[in-house]
User: Fold this.
Amino acid sequence: MHRTWSLGKFRFIINLWALVFLVVTSIIFLFPPATPVSGSSMNYVIAVVGVVWAFAGVTWLVHARTHFHGPSQLKERLAIALAA
Assistant:
């Protein structure tokens, strides 16, 4: 199979760096913008993230757990990915 774009031999390092960057920036994103923290200076993103996670969890338990079907031809796609 011909690839049009690839990270080459550095793909593991690039993926690891991207994951570290994602985790660090996600944690920093939740910090309050100023100290001392009060009700008006608090960063409410953590509350929004919590609501989204709760909504996703309830949706999974109520509907998606029984109605979601994974990708078709999974074995064939995994074989192609492992051969690459």
Notes: Residues 8-83 form one domain. The chain has a mean pLDDT of 88. Residues 34 and 41 are 7 Å apart (CA to CA). Helices lie at 11-29, 45-67, 74-83.
